[in-house]
Input
Amino acid sequence: MKNKKTILIVSIFILALIISLFFTVLHVQSQITDLFRLNKELQEEGYYMADFEFKMMGMAYWLDHGHYHTALSRLNQLHRQLKTREGLIKMPKFKNKEDELDFYLNLQNARTGAFMDDSYPYCTYNEPTENILSHIDALAEETGQPLRLKYPLKYLDDINTPEKLKAFLEDVSNVGWIASRFPQTTFLFARSLLSYYNGEGVIGEHNLYNFSPEWKQTLLQWFYDNQDRRTGFWGPRSRTSGQLLKRDLTNTASIIKTFIDRNGSDIHQSFPLRYRKEMFKTALGVMSEPIPSDEDLDEWHEWSLKMGKGIIMLTRYLWKDASEDDKAKAKALIEGFVKVAFEKYYVAGEGAFSYYPASEHATLDGTGGKINEFTDIGFFSAEKQKELWGNPEESIIDLGVCNVSILTENNFALITNHPEVNSLRFYDTIPDFGDLTSGVFAVAYPQKSSVRDIMDFTPKMKHWLNTTSQSIGNWVSKEATAQSMNTLEIEEVLIYEDGISLKTMNEFLQKNKRFVVLGFDVLQIPRYKIIFDKK
Output
């Protein structure tokens, strides 16, 4: 009888433990979803949130290493802080760029030299530091000041030998079951170190910390040895089996540029990029996964990352070696991505993009990310467009010359009655196919469409960037984004949302005697051309 009681008590205890664990998991999942919602809100409200993602990754690291109490209590603490706003930094209105530079320099941690709360795991320090330094570098350049930090980057002393480096890489790259459940794993922090090798990071570029040639060789060799031959990808591996745990497109897209340049040529003779075709096919598979439900903000966060990084990887690095069939599949995925980008992320009232779907306000992460993605699919460059999609002068369908005295809707139907035509651009002279943003006097949308023509949204994005109080997102800097946008010479033109204004076009025809109309698809590729001449 005594044994039966003992068994019963133990069984009840185990059952209670399982039930408690089940509800704890549900509570944590709910908190994580809500944290991403709060991150979205706080960015829009102008709070400093550049370290949010890395704090989340730090908690994943604690959980994966068995520090459950620390992780869960910190998760509760962070959730409470974001809800109450207590202790958060509200971005001030800077008097000038010098004032902004001082603000960011003062965020540096005196003990570690990192731009990260040192109560979080060591592995989280480097990535936010690189992001903030990139913004500080742009500000220093703009103000004509040398880049000088308040404190040395002491945290890098912990990985400054080949032996220490390898130990760190293995620690953050080999993960357990818990970490593998997160959208992103601590493998991100291994990938982050490659900026010291490829010269992309501010730390290496400005000699803010120097690593030995042996250290850099060890770093490159480790990544070369850890590419998965079946998928061509890099990513977290199982701590027990050593197998690749996920098709980590986001980090693979960042690692690839250490091995090949934008022309797809190998950078290091001793370390040629392998498994290119496998990489392309694996990326197509990841990018074909269904889009998340509207309420799953953490999943949307991951979807945006993988789609953006995937598009850049395919179009910038792997395109020339891909088969025509794979290129056609990629094009269809990219077209779908562009439609979702405008349907879910474009904030029409502000003329810029959010990072999370259906947001009230645009953000730097959303806008900066979309500019990079649109650049790499040829939105702003005739040369890039030609490289990806072929020569438009050869593929465009010429509808000839239409001689009219008065324009009617039937005349325009010649170019509008094609489902692939998303927008129309009106030119006062024969356009130069090397520069299809010059000579435009109007843009019209023949059918209702969420996808905007670049003549429509680019000036609005520039205005938003010049007027927003946001200066840095989770990883995008206002200065760097504005610099890339300022190279685009696209002027505001008349926009007709609901079809063509016959009155305006007839007035222009009477005055100018001729104009040209090009019909563009959602990738901003010219598909049809027609010339209207006055009889």
User: Anything to note?
Assistant: The beta strands are 174-175, 237-238, 346-347, 352-353, 397-404, 423-427, 440-444, 494-496, 514-520, 526-534. Residues 2-44 form the longest helix (43 residues). Residues 95 and 101 are 11 Å apart (CA to CA). Residues 392-534 form one domain.
